[in-house]
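Hi there,

I know you've been waiting on this one. I reran it after we fixed the sequence typo, so this is the corrected version. Both the input and the resulting structure follow.
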Amino acid sequence: QVQLVESGGGLVQPGGSLRLVCASPAITFSGFAMSWYRQFPGKERELVATITNAGGVRTYADSVKGRFTISRDNGKDTVYLQMDNLKPEDTAVYYCNTNHAGLQWGRGTSVTVSS
């Protein structure tokens, strides 16, 4: 059963922006702290950003701090990642999950930053 669906990725030039969306046909997000992760080719997934279940606390990896913003809409069971001032080194597949990665991974959404 599909638990997580990520979307919003694509090809963007350096300095550009994308907004990623995470939704679920089966899970109510409001009880979970949620995170975005990313995976570079041949590497392990790494944590990018986390938001507490009510949205009051947000934390970020140093590499994205000041450029990415995580947010959520519990009424829509949706989590967002606004990515601004994108850099080529942000190129990766992006995934969402709980902050403990407790749900089945979705397919992710691919982000390519290139001129």
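Quick highlight: The two ends are 38 Å apart (CA to CA).

Best,
R. S.
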